[in-house]
Give the backbone structure.
Amino acid sequence: GVQLNALIRQVFNFNNTSANTNTNPYLLTYSINSRISGLGLRLGVGYNYNSSSTDDGITKTENNINDLQLRLGGEKVFKLSNRWVTGAGLDLVFNNNDDHTVNTVNSGITGGGQKTDTKTATTTYGGGPQGWLRYHITEKVLIGTEASFYFVTGTEKRTVTITNGFPTPTNDKPVTNDISHGVFNSPIAFFIMVKF
């Protein structure tokens, strides 16, 4: 399956904004289930890469973002009618966010200025329950939504290097922070799926 939210926003955009309120990071999903018992496995993958640069003549900022989200879990499918099916299960999740920002301020003096290089790497893992509801458009094509609650824990490592226009940079020691949080993904992400 693949998420439909971006396409739906293009077709039905009533408030004339491009704000994305969808918090489900898994663009692609794959499930394999037994036709008899309904038990099966599912996989979700999401990836975000963003590179941007701004320069107003005084301050130049470069951003590079590499985010990867993975989930793997077991589920049970329940047939509600000829058209409707639902399911529930447990997922294990892994997230890796790698963000790199370089901010350069030009003081206008030869050899002057300041460059700040910030690298942040966040790795979390955990899991939790999930549930979904799908509707058969045809025998092989379904549309559906899902909800989940994932509790994750991990570390954030940040390194900041500051260069003040001189040959010797000022290196801050890497800082490591422990993080943990629970995330509820409400059923606002819509998926279209092809059944084999």
